Amino acid sequence: MQKKINPHSFHIPVMGLAFTVDSPIKIAKYGISSVISIVDDILIEKMNEYYSTKFKIPYKEISTKVEDYRAKRITSYLNTVDIIVKQKFESLKKSFDEKSSEFEKYMDMLPDFSELKQNFIQTIQNNTVKEDLNNWIQNNLKSGSIDVNIMTKLDKPNYNKNEMLPIEYNDAHAALRGFANSNLESSVVFSAGMNPRLYSYCENFEDFYPNEKNHLKKKIILKVSDYRSAIIQGKFLAKKGLWVSEYRIESGLNCGGHAFASDGYLLGPILEEFKINKNALMAEIHNIFVDALKGKGKHVPDAPLNIDITVQGGVGTSEEHEFLLDNYNIDSVGWGTPFLLVPEATTVDEDTRKALQAAKEKDLYLSDISPLGVPFNSLRGNSNEIIKNQRIAANKPGSACAKKFLSSNTDYTEKVICTASKKYQTIKLNELKLEELSSSEFAEKSKKITDKACLCEGLANAALINYKVEQKREEQGVAICPGPNMAYFSKDLSLKEMVSHIYGRTNVIETKNRPHMFIKELGLYIDYFSNKVDEINDSFNIKQEKYLTAFQSNLNDGIEYYQHLFSDSKIYFEANKELLLIELETLQNELFKIKIPILVKA
After folding, report:
1. CA dist 452 → 356, 446, 523, 592 (Å)
2. SS3 at position 424
3. If I label 105, which of 184, 361, 535, 563 is the partner at 20 to 30 A Cα–Cα?
4. How much is the pTM?
């Protein structure tokens, strides 16, 4: 299968619920791919109404009384986005003759090394006939992909009155069906780990299988933390006759949103393993894939379909971007957090954007606010946090929990409830009052309960505020989830400025003290490891000893890998090699100052 040449060597990953909910409408016409979260059908329905009205597209409300309303809302919005993107892209192509046109902006933003840009320059030099130029534009320009994200863990069952609906009406299943039934030719990104039932549900939709031209209308992207995870999940899907078109590697800690830390495996060594094993991975999965397709009586490609390896998490300079592409043969680099300061690309309310601009390293932290119990990147003093703390101070902790997307707890109820809800926190705090605790112990334990925040509303509200959409629910403010990289970007940026920064035509980072992304991730992991050691000091056992010892060893292996990488590279690290090696040595010393408790054997 011929590999598609993407206009750009970067993509914008999913961010929150609102922050990239309409990014394709803003930037796909420029050939930039981005990812919409399709968790929140309530937000999606409001966005559908807003954009249908704006672009005069027929719109009919899909109420919660309609059967399968969640999937239908998602399908309808994705089709609306598809229509708008196609309209904008056609208009852009027709603007070739205008000065300062959208077409000119498209071409200007392409990297100088772009094959598309070089071909266009040659075409202009060789053709003076306007019709020939217009034909070239029609045949060669590409819009960015309108991809979607499903967090696989968000798959709670749903009910009709008190009767549980079949599994295909679970949240993630319905979201997948909404995407599969849409007109999009794009990808679904599965994140947050393996969900076998959800993966198997893809088998029900013909668009996920290759046609006679070996084309996949709907593709699967897996967000993975390491090579082992990739091959396990890739094989599982291949046995169903489903091909993974992209493995999207994300830093465990140097990222935004939920942080799924690895067991001390660092990004550089992980990328090296993918680079070494990509061909073997493709061949092994192809054989399994072929057998499955034959068993289903479907078209069988005679050669492996394309697999992209992409990476995201903490990238902040053109040098880092170029190094990832060249050294690891990466197909695209994800730039998320910095785009939160680009209103042309993402949707963030003005107050929150100002808070992001002012954020320093100390303001960006790994919090316990997620009801999923997974560490969550947060910004100190965001409006969601302020409102939550006001409720706690007024002795009214917890949220009303209207959306219930993050509900997963059944300790006290038959149906799942959210640990950020009033219901759950009231029960837990009343239990705590019955324990005979000192005031400091009570404060510490109650804080762990009330730390949980309503992210369903908090991560969606920026769009409602931005577009002045009426909100009837309890006030929640805006929760924002930037990665640590946010500390080094300090002003609003135009789309052209941000893209020029990515490709090294300009530099928008004002500080001189930004650490290299590999060094930053290593520091984050050492802090994480130190906290883990402190956490389990009081309940230490053999299993924990093995975990911590392996974690420390993996980090040290990563340090040794970087020592060789920085020393041996003649291009990328020559100018600051000595500083990088000193920073590595300092962090290595910090790592081994952290003492794992010794288990006293009886």
Report:
1. 22, 11, 26, 33
2. helix
3. 184
4. 0.96
